[in-house]
Amino acid sequence: xxxxxxxxxxxxxxxxxxxxxxxxxxxxxxxxxxxxxxxxxxxxxxxxxxxxxxxxxxxxxxxxxxxxxxxxxxxxxxxxxxxxxxxxxxxxxxxxxxxxxxxxxxxxxxxxxxxxxxxxxxxxxxxxxxxxxxxxxxxxxxxxxxxxxxxxxxxxxxxxxxxxxxxxxxxxxxxxxxxxxxxxxxxxxxxxxxxxxxxxxxxxxxxxxxxxxxxxxxxxxxxxxxxxxxxxxxxxxxxxxxxxxxxxxxxxxxxxxxxxxxxxxxxxxxxxxxxxxxxxxxxxxxxxxxxxxxxxxxxx
Amino acid sequence: xxxxxxxxxxxxxxxxxxxxxxxxxxxxxxxxxxxxxxxxxxxxxxxxxxxxxxxxxxxxxxxxxxxxxxxxxxxxxxxxxxxxxxxxxxxxxxxxxxxxxxxxxxxxxxxxxxxxxxxxxxxxxxxxxxxxxxxxxxxxxxxxxxxxxxxxxxxxxxxxxxxxxxxxxxxxxxxxxxxxxxxxxxxxxxxxxxxxxxxxxxxxxxxxxxxxxxxxxxxxxxxxxxxxxxxxxxxxxxxxxxxxxxxxxxxxxxxxxxxxxxxxxxxxxxxxxxxx
Lengths: 300, 276
What we know:
heterodimer, A: alpha+beta, Sulfite Oxidase, Chain A, domain 2, 2 domains, 5-stranded mixed β-sheet, 5-stranded antiparallel β-sheet, 7 helices, 26% helix, elongated, B: mainly alpha, two-stranded antiparallel ribbon, 66% helix, 3% strand, globular
């Protein structure tokens, strides 16, 4: 390094002015330092390199095998693996990762933390995202909300007039976030789920609500009841509504008339349309989308 | 990529006769492991990420009257099938992109599971990398300097001119640096962990836009954070291509050092050592 410039390479961390002051301060904390040179017997170097390369090769093979094992069956089929690689162990492992993420979401949740609210000028269109066919509005006149698993042991049925006269109506403009990634800011009004919980307390050991819509249809228009688990901690959040109005008007059939769950701290798929039954239970109930490979807590 | 080494090797002869070989510690054990693990994890994140993107593409247009397609990524696939030889008979042109650069279309639940798994591994691996940088002191070599702007231009000029000089059989000298990395390398190696941090931050912002709404707001809101997250993926892709080419071009010592940790290019450390 014959013409190695000295002044124009501050990266060595050696600053000429400091040189004369103190030997200890010659190297700044952030300055780059020379790579530590070590002396090794060639035999040792060869042996260690061989060991490192063997470990590297074995790890690469293990990583390839692990990745191949975890890939979805459709992907493997496309890659030419025609054998079925699904197994209970694979499902267990991937669901474990999903549950860890759910536990993180649950730890992040706070009943006191409000979600952001927006102004009317920020409202965006909300499409009808019924997964199957949209139900025929014929169910609406006879619609009732049934409550089960109450502390009283009774089975309560309420119609929309009961609900709107007994409970105060709250308005909010919040964002609905879909698991697919899109979102919409919409203006909702309805009663607080928490008010319903206070008026009709669940049995003491209840930790969950099973939220059900019996009018839900599949893509070909056949009955496909929608059921979803909701932890009562989330149900009692002040922004969790049993919404009856959308954009200042009573809900249309597209948006789950006459009453839908609006739970902005959860993914859209938990915001059940046309709720027909709430059942309070001690154990986590089944969940429509969790049975189709999605997470079950879905806190956002 | 320290090309000044060959000139320095002669200076080892000034040292007293020693039975061993002199090597420098280049990459800490934890840095090496996290580097290779990252190859698999990032690949998993990108492939599953594009499968997730399929469910609700960031870039959309009004549905095409003929095909009903609204996804720009699907347009690219349709274009490829129409213009690239051998792809004319592809059965579903709108899925071409997702079939070739993702786990596949229509598997959102599976892709999400793998994305979360890889994302947690990515965060853990990032911590291992930072621990390796701290323990091995390698972080100092990555810090940007004021001289980097000019030096990076010199390196850029060198890389651009290199093929032409080779063709013209002209001598084309590598700019001299006595640091572990040249300015362009340093910019790249510094950007990747920064991008990693931003990917994690934007990932949390779109994963938990309610509980972490302040984080989403930091990136301009939920929708903007999704756009950030998408383009940060391109940082890795745009990094990896020249990275792999240049590492192989630089020689066996460079590739080997990321596996064994040491480098036989001891020149620089001696020069700096002599200066002290």
